[in-house]
Amino acid sequence: MPETAPAEPAARRRGTFRALGSRPFRLYFAGQVASASGTFLQQTAIGWLVLQLTHSASALGLVLAAGGIPSLLLGPWGGALADRIDLRRLLLATQAAYAVCAGLLWALAASGHASVAAIVAINVVAGLVSIPDSPARQAFVSALVPPDDLASAVSLNGVVVNGARVIGPALAGALIVTVGTTPCFAVNAISYLAVIVALLFVRPRSAGRRPAGRAGVGAALTYARGRQQLWLPLTMMALVGLFAFNFAVVLPVLADRTLHGGGGTYSLLSTMLSIGSVAGSLAVGLVRHPRRPYLVAAAAAFGVGLALTAVAPGVVVACASLLVTGVAAFSFVTLCSTTLQLHSSSEFRGRVMALWVFVYLGTTPIGSVLTGWIVSAGGPRAALWVGAAACLVAALVAGRVHTPPHPDAAYADLPR
User: Fold this and answer.
1) Domain residues for 115?
2) Euclidean distance between CA atoms 258 and 267, whole angstroms
3) Using CB atoms within 10 A of its CB, is residue 257 exposed (0-12), middle (13-18) or buried (19+)?
4) Which terminus of the chain has a lower count of CB atoms within 10 Å, N or C?
């Protein structure tokens, strides 16, 4: 129509970054950059600390699995809770709780009392906090931007996380090499202040919450099961997440035992993976509406990247293959997330994204344990081959599924 014609070219010109035109989103975006970087800094430090304490890949897998157990057991109910509570207040509480967990971990490490049992306990507590926090953060984004900018906001939200995968491990590597792992936990605790301050000043465009009935989770499952645009990416992510997204278990051992490096090598590998992930998320932001062939291509490319890493003879080749893997892996993640948000109605979006968090992060406990066993039995290269096979199977399954038009009239024009 004539009155809307001028706005459309402007949206196209701004492309991936158009969501930054919203002041609430800009504030939230800035806070997330600092907080997410601290999170991945701590994750990198925990991986190296546990490996130094135990010299066991299986123990490392169990420690990382501990944080995902609460999401595995209770994750889907986090979306129903987020739908009942004001999202801004909920996020203020969860970010403060994360800061306390990081501060406690720093205190234990500084006093020389950091043990595997203590790290597991703190990870479990943080996992409980993540149950409402993860879907709340996903749903909160849609309350900060106009509907037309949602795809851009989802992409940029992915860029925040994947950019943090570059900044966090790089800073962790520098700290580990110079002063050890302990300061990493203090830096993470402080980083949460950035997002807390941002949330105090953010005023969402909408309330950011909707009432959920008693059967909130059941209704979301029924809703997703009846729409291939929802259950297909969820199914693909469950398979890929279980066997392929266990870099925190594989990379420390790959750096230490296979490539005969140290903390700096581990940080370098993680950083190259993260640089690729940022590039992948930015590329997806240029896609107006994700299509099934894009998911197929991204999953297949992810598998190829893991296979190339599995045969890498040295650090240089491993860095190059992990760069490719990062582009494909996080293109896949961002495509899945964007597909789910664009194809779910606002009434169900929080609960659908809770299902997404469940299959993305909830598979971590099982996947980390399985990968730890595979690494212990056959080495990190074997684990990479298993992940590559899972990605290729997911791509093959998706390639054979025909996705019909979305059953909701509002989404009937979205391309397949």
Assistant:
1) 14-411
2) 15
3) middle
4) N
Query: Quick one: pLDDT at residue 403?
Result: 55
- The CATH number of the domain holding residue 259 is 1.20.1250.20
- Please report whether residue 9 resides in a domain: no
Contact 168, 36 (CB under 8 A): yes
Q: What is the C-alpha separation between 351 and 81, in angstroms, rounded?
A: 9
The pLDDT value recorded for residue 154 is 74
Position 86, amino acid: D
Check: CB of residue 225 under 8 Å from CB of residue 231. Answer: yes
Distance CA 187, CA 39 (A): 9
For residue 182, tell me if it sits in a domain: yes
| Distance in angstroms (rounded) separating the CA atoms of residues 88 and 201 | 10
Distance separating the N- and C-terminal Cα atoms of the chain? 25
Name residue, tokens 């398979």.
239
Q: Is 67:361 a contact under the CB 8 Å cutoff?
A: no
Average pLDDT over residues 305-330: 94
Among 55-64, 215-224, 262-271, 406-415, the range scoring the smallest mean pLDDT is 406-415
Long-range contacts of 105-112 (CB under 8 A, 24+ apart): 105/42, 105/185, 106/182, 106/183, 106/185, 106/186, 106/188, 106/189, 109/49, 109/181, 109/182, 109/185, 110/182, 110/186
Q: Find out whether 18 and 155 touch, Cβ atoms under 8 Å.
A: no
When divided into structural domains, the chain yields a total of 1
Is 358 among the domain residues? yes
Residue 5, in any domain of the structure: no
